[in-house]
Amino acid sequence: MKRLIILAAMAACSAPAFAQQAPLRDAVARDYRENLGALFDHFHRNPELSGLETQTAARMAQELRALGYEVTTGVGGTGVVALLRNGEGPTVLLRADMDGLPLEERSGVSNPSRARQTDRTGTEQPVMHACGHDVHITALVGTARQLAARRANWSGTLVLIAQPAEETISGARAMIEDGLYTRFPKPDYALAFHVAADVPAGRIEVPPTLVASSADSVSIEVRGVGTHGAYPHLGVDPVLVASQIVVSLQSMVGRDINPLEGAVISVGMIHGGVKSNIIPERVELQMTVRANTPEIRTRLLDGIDRVARGTALALGVPEDRLPVVTRSPTETTPPTINDPETAAVVRDAIAGAMGADRLIETPPSGMGAEDFAYFVTPESGVKGVYFSVGGTPPERLANAPGHHSPLFRIEPEPSVTAGVEAMVVGAEALLARR
Predict the structure, then answer these.
(1) How far apart are CA 403 and CA 401, in angstroms?
(2) Partner residues linked to 54 by β-bridges
(3) What pLDDT is attached to residue 157?
(4) Which of 79, 91, 138, 324 is the most exposed place for a label (fewest CB within 10 A)?
(5) Which residues pair with 80 in a beta bridge?
(6) pLDDT of residue 67
(7) What angle do CA 171, 176, 179 make, to 5 degrees?
(8) Could you tell me if 25 and 174 lie in one domain?
(9) What amino acid positions are annotated as catalytic residues?
């Protein structure tokens, strides 16, 4: 507690002088040695599952209060909102996600997670930061410290959020629905970053437009008429219907959608039946649907309804037993698309302050999703920039495990410090004194 009081006093009283005495990079490096390295270690060893981030949220609130921010907890579940007002000017939101994944860590690092937690279904799970959210929340604290120390460089209002449940693409929407943009100052701009295992540590990529795809979880209950496996003509086989639906969905992607457009339907679960010689009454399919534009997203989702119904009718399923298609109301997010003008401002600021050689451009590697999109939807009027910070030393890139793997690992110091520098520089560019 004594250390926290001292830090708060430094932020409130002597921060501007500190900023004048040391360049940003030196200040961030020192902060990592003195504070952020230990904080990262704590978060990495103590991950929590989506929507259950109570201890992580409490630590984030503690750290941000100690820096002089006005902190509110319990927003959208376990979300944390911290405000710092510094005169007239724009409002900028800085976001970090804080949940881990139900994986047992096998990364080989010296500080592995051994945490276990009971999930919402009552099942005890191992928990691991297998997507770098420990980097994000550590960097948010470092960013908060530097921006508090550098008040002389900017004017406006900061809204810092530690967001729950990104891995279930539900936490951002929950915070919005709980009044993030009505109970607190609504941002003009929103910034966030993600550490990337496939990018050299410390390098930064600021996409001009598309960042991440939309994602929707869809389930289909395929219903049939059960019978003996030796007498298939006496029933309607839902296994056959479900199999044909899976094939037809891929045909839809391959033939109905322009091949230059991003579109994916991946069926990740098929379950049905209890015995080899019994044709069951139902089969369940679960899938993820990805798209890079709202228009293609709508076509894919509508197409699933059409294919499921049409295939069932073609194979003789009675009208009263046609498939039931359900779209998850929570595991859904639109595409994340940067505002081009704002992205250019942030990119230029990073190049000017950190060096153009720190910037990198990489080809798209997949269709990952990100619920930061909810903070910057077109109807919100908030201009967003979401960028990547490399997390793997160049010599390890060729064999770097991907995100959501129990082998996932990044190099924390260059990842955290680059993330802090870029977030500070980007925020100050948008909050520049005029």
Answers:
(1) 7
(2) none
(3) 98
(4) 324
(5) 162
(6) 98
(7) 130
(8) yes
(9) 99, 166
